[in-house]
Amino acid sequence: QLRYYWEDAASVPGGYFQAGTETMVVRMMNAVRPYDFEYLGNSFRLVITPLTDRCYRTLIGAIHLNLGGAPEGPAGTGKTETTKDLAAQLGKAIYVFNCGPEMDYRTIGDIFKGIATAGAWGCFDEFN
Description:
Blueprint: E1 3-8, E2 22-28, E3 31-34, H1 50-64, H2 79-89, E4 94-98, H3 105-118, E5 121-125
Parallel strand pairs: 4-5
Antiparallel strand pairs: 1-2, 2-3
């Protein structure tokens, strides 16, 4: 499970903050991630099952290693909702895009420019 701690910024890996300040960090297993303080509204929490917990562990481990994640599986199993809930728990903005055949490389490029500028996560549904 995710745990929240108020720590000295020097202990946060990656050198995000200047020494002598404090910040909130999110920990799970050996992964440490600074909380991003993006207010996303008062939303409902996802029910934590062994599968969602496993997905959380995998994604937060990848994030800790500066990698990304691409959950896969049958339709209707909660991949998008799990990713959205994890982003909300990390205080990170996430934008969900429903992809279709009319999306070309320029559209995808504009989306990537936007989410990179905002420092947000992107979730691409139906990316075939």
